[in-house]
Amino acid sequence: MKQLQIQGAGGLSTILVGEQLKNLTDYLPTRTPVIVTDENVGQRYADQFPPGHVITIGTGEGIKTLETISRIYSELVAIEADRACGIVGIGGGIVCDVAGFVASTYLRGVRFGFVASTLLAQVDASVGGKNGVNFGGYKNMVGTFNQPEFVLCDLDMLHSLPETQLQCGFAEIVKHAAIADAGMFEALENDAGKALALDPLVIERLVYDSLVIKSTFVHQDEKETGERRKLNFGHTFGHAIEKVTGVPHGQAVSVGMVLAAELSQQRGLITAHEKDRLCALLEQLNLPTRITFDKDAVLEALGKDKKRENESVHFVLLNGLGRAVIADISLAELRRFQGL
Amino acid sequence: MDRPNIVLTGFMGTGKTTVGKKIAQQLAYDFVDTDELIQERAGKTVPEIFQEMGEVAFREMEAAVARELADMQGVVISTGGRLMLDPGNAAALSSTGRVFCLVATPEEILERVTNDPDVERPLLTVQNPMERIVELMQQRQEGYGQFSQMVTSEKTPDVVTKNLVGIFQSNPDQRVPIMGAGKRYEYIVGGGLLPFAKNLAGIAGPVAVITDTNTGPLYAQSCGPVDMVIEVPPGQQHKTLTMAQSICEQLVEKGFDRKGTIIGLGGSVISGLAGFVAAIYMRGVDLVHCPTSLLAMVDTSIGGKAGINLPQGKNMVGAFKQPTAVIADVATLQSLSPEEFSSGMAEVIKHGLIDDPELFARIESGSWVRKAGTLVPPLADLQALVAQAIQVKIRIVQEDPFDQGRRNVLNLGHTFAHAIEQVCEHTIRHGEAVAMGLVAAANLSARLGHCSPSLQDRLEPVLADAGLPNRIPTHIDLPRVYEAMRRDKKAASGRIRFVLFRTIGDVFVTDAVTQAQVLETLTDIRE
Fold first, then answer.
1. Per the confidence metrics, is the pTM higher than 0.80?
2. Burial class (CB in 10 A: 0-12, 13-18, 19+), B442
């Protein structure tokens, strides 16, 4: 097991990579927490949950709404959960987003932590203190910044994940290596097979390295104004493609990273060889590098992304493998971009 | 600016010229009457200009004069009745001056105008001038409403002058710095601040004003040009997640992004709602509170608590959201109903009881009942009262920004109040419930031997003088009140926490109270 401490605006988070769900009670602030989970995780792992009231939500991005939040508030009131209750989200990114938002707002905030059950949640969603729900067709339109007290990453839970869920996690891992760590990128190129087979040692190291990278960016910039934006590499296109085509998040981000790499190459920031290495790594991890989509619809969605400010879009480009830069690219330039 | 101009606007006959000259004399300012200046330059009377050159020409002359005067300082400017209704003129003159709108009843206006033989009033040379005055006043209501209102009814010009100079001079805006969760911001209190709100708060990007349908029509325009005004229905029953969602929807629709600032303009419901929206919209945008009720000024706008109600209880959901500034314009208190004013006084009294015996004595020796349509108490006194009351809360929240300890004392009387409000389904105002709760806290403290029974005796007349009740109405079911207290969000693991008195200005938190003792107190102070 590897342990990592992250200092956020709301306090200190302890991340435990390789710790198991059945040991959750060791980290709880209260003996009987309120558990927020989803149908799948609840069904499979309920016997390992600590004692406590369990609130189960549905699955899928569509459940991340204020209506779901409202329903959870009602359930908390019904069981008379008070400020000392303690909420644990057990599940993937959606559960963590929903549980984090509820815990940050119910009674103006109660203590909370997560057991991240998906690779994506382990490397991404549960760190950085972002939570929120979707709204009016936009992702995470309402939410807060608030650090969980602990995040437990149980690697055994990964074995029950469907392929598309793993892809999401691997896309984020590649992203972290590409924007911040050339050495990790190279190691990943060598260990891609073992990673796909969920080799515990390889996965533990990849998750840990990803967390270190993400927490470094987050730590430098708690409120997403500068450095943290680099974590959006592949996501500006990714969100738009996901929205327009409905492909799974991981695949959309994978394609988004390739497009961003092509933009980087076009600006002379990376070589064709570096771009090809990125594509090859993604392919090794069973991630797509190209899909067909309606260019105009994607551009339209880009313009309405919540990170839009005026006419240009903040883009994260690569400046060599292992380094990222932020560039403002006008919608007009994007329209001329051949990669789309 | 050392000597900001004073700009007087308002309907004819409200005394702009008379009062303006007196103010200028007192402050050693120059005096300019825009109509006179225009007449002098044109060599014609205003009616002649209208007749010979047309109204458009006259309005152009007014605009030129407005631009010119905006570049000067140390001038009292009495403006023609419609000059400040032009947004360009208003923007120019309010950029370098404090604007006051003088207000009088139609009857008084007619009387003053008829008794002033020197001046021709072409607009009123009609058969029924009274009808005409009322009609014109209605037309201009919205335009005049954007400025600080100074009621002149039943006041001599000298009294009006004294009031205005009082606001203007003896009470420069008071600024109290607040440290909240590592961020410093200022609480600025003064008379007639709203038109300067954006400047005072240092807002640069887009602005969305969130207000209610009572406050919006009165003051939204006073905040100057903003990108959007979102009005919600007034009242606690609308401080819901659904309403927060509806506001977010409107912000999304209008392309409001995270560079924007939300101004919460209104009472405590708006402070909570706008604060919550600012906390969660795009995971947080800047927030400026412009409280317009006494309750919001001395309580809800300070401390960063933002929240909404659930059907099961008040403020069950929320966040801590520190504003970038609080701009309290005490002139807005004039539009409060006497009940709303009393409601705010309950919190002012509470602040005195918690940590400022001097504030309590000040309230005790003054008169703090607002009578409809009058300026009692005077703005200058109100400003001083607000400034003193906020310091109690600021001191306490600074010690405990996240409500983990010391801040509990601010709940003095509130454990009872929230429960009473809930049981009567909010038919009792928050301030009234707080007043009952304060009496209950005094009663319970004495019952448990923590303070003298005389505290309750001293408290009750102070509440009564502020127009507040000090007994619980008979129709309220007391066991249900106790049950509601037990379910309160501040109850930790079922233990109810009470703030009790040692003496005035010295309170403490305890949960060592039995159900029987609480019920005895509730019964004791029932009507």
1. no
2. buried
